[in-house]
Amino acid sequence: MSISPPPSPAKEKKSMKTDNQSSVSEFLLLGLPIWPEQQGIYYTLFLIIYLTTVLGNLLIILLIRLDPRLHTPMYFFLSHLAFTDISFSSVTAPKMLINMQTQTQSISYGGCISQVYFFLFGGDLDSFLLTSMAYDRYVAICHPLLYTAIMSQSLCFQLVIVSWVLSCASALLHTLLLARLSFCGDNTLPHFFCDLSALLKLSSSDTTVNDLVIITVGGVVITLPFICILVSYGRIGATILRVPSTKGICKALSTCGSHLSVVSLYYGAIIGLYFFPSSNNSNDKDVIVAVLYTLVTPMLNPFIYSLRNQDMKGALGHLLRRGIFSPY
After folding, report:
1. Is 61 helix (H, G, I), strand (E, B) or coil?
2. Residues 6+ apart with CB under 8 A from 263
3. Which DSSP category does 188 fall into?
């Protein structure tokens, strides 16, 4: 009778790592910090918010496509922003609503990783599109005579394509680094979606590389665009102050007011969520801010651009007068 030798430490460690990686087939999402008896009220509220987001942004895309007066660089970027907001909300809202309705908390491992990718992709793309819109406003106000030459159709397409490529690369890098981590033991996420930072806290692997990439890549896709937006509006402000007039200020506010409001909502939520995170023992604030960031802000964008933008209101009125919604 032969006795096989005990496995080497290296083989045992490798086997344990494989078991750990395959042991977690799903995660449990704790959802929103609300009482069970209030689930129905909040389900209705968030369903209305999500439907408003989808319909409102679809309306913006429809108006821009149908009204020739809106075929300008600014509204070209706005149409892409509206499409991104629909996709961004659709990454988290449907799953959250399904979990609230069915009282289930689970999400598969593959579904969780996919949600991380599309969430990061949508958030990064929003950042780049807002930066492109700020540059467009800078050229329109600071170099009005050269606006048509600078903001050509080819440049607009290039800015959008670069935004998509950089967002895809950034999200893919984070997702691939996340997929190499192992998860064992606790698989409960104190969130309503698969948030990258929450998953890294849950991992049993060393996340040093992930944290380093978050800092460096985050500086490229979030901090750098934010600085570019601030510089653009700083130049715009300096141009307005150089020739102070009530008419000029009103025109600048009309041109930039909607975009500034959206930028404030977007980056305000990001700063509150990622630059001032809550402690490990209390995640309620992070979850609430994430709701504002992923659901409320995309819903408010159509209202901001409709109520504060004369061109959009004019296009909507023109569309209604044409009877576009009439069956005849």
Report:
1. helix
2. 130, 134, 229
3. E
